[in-house]
Amino acid sequence: GTAALIWNEIIREKVTNFFMNQSKEQRILNFVLQNAVRGDPYSVVDTIDKYCSQKEWAMNVGDEKGKILDKIVEEANPSVALELGTYCGYSAVRISRLLKAGARLLTVEFNPEFAAVAKQMIEFAGVQDKVKLLEGPSEEIIPQLKKKYEVDTLDFVFLDHWKDRYTPDTKLLQECNLLRKGTILLADNVIFPGAPDFLNYVRKSPHFQCTNYPSHLEYMQVEDAMEKAVFLG
């Protein structure tokens, strides 16, 4: 069922990439540049959702889980937020549109092609003053946050990168003293593709208080969930 659906999407994407000589991520960006309103992050988010629900599936957080993300960003009301896994810039735009004046989002992307697309997406949405895109592996960037990027502590962290990095990066955030009492971590895709070791770690740790938000995989009727873990110090 699910695996076949996603496999079909991958095959279709590869064929399209070959004939169009561009990546799916570039197609998403082009669709936004042609159809969204420049400088309007809400329009950019809606346009990406439209493309990914009607034309090609993509691993953005999507609209259903996006509403959960919005709610938790509003609850955290962060001055400094961190996102691990920028991809096309969808959630960076989604988060930044809710940030108060003077707040900033640092978003980390390992893949240079995704980073190039995200940079244009962020600029087109008009949120480049609030968002700083950091290119490279999360395990190298996290230890640099305090000195190089002048982060004292983080108020909100969105984990949406490689699922096997969720646990080591959470531990790294703790080791680097980047979390304070009340810092909210939100992890996407904890059911599909799944992050069982992360759930096991935060749920058993006395340092976190967890809440699960059942939902569906972006743009599909496949069960998924987000996990909120509040750092207790």
Automatic annotation (TrEMBL):
Annotated residues for binding of S-adenosyl-L-methionine: V61, S91, E109, D160
Offer a single GO CC term for the protein: membrane
- E.C. code: 2.1.1.6
Q: Which GO terms describe its biological process?
A: catecholamine catabolic process; developmental process; dopamine metabolic process; methylation
Which InterPro entries does this entry report, sorted A to Z?
Catechol_O-MeTrfase_euk, SAM-dependent_MTases_sf, SAM_O-MeTrfase
Q: Where does substrate bind?
A: K163, N189, E218
PROSITE patterns to which the protein is assigned, alphabetical: SAM_OMT_I
Q: Mind listing the GO molecular function terms for this protein?
A: catechol O-methyltransferase activity; magnesium ion binding
Q: Which cofactor does it need?
A: Mg(2+)
Gene3D superfamilies named among the record's database cross-references: Vaccinia Virus protein VP39
Quote the cofactor binding remark: Binds 1 Mg(2+) ion per subunit.
Where does the source fall among the domains of life?
Eukaryota
Q: What keywords appear on the UniProt entry?
A: Catecholamine metabolism, Magnesium, Metal-binding, Methyltransferase, Neurotransmitter degradation, S-adenosyl-L-methionine, Transferase
Give the residues the record marks as binding Mg(2+).
D160, D188, N189
Matching Pfam families: Methyltransf_3 (PF01596)
Assigned protein family: Belongs to the class I-like SAM-binding methyltransferase superfamily. Cation-dependent O-methyltransferase family.
Question: What's the name of the protein?
Answer: catechol O-methyltransferase
Its gene name is Comt
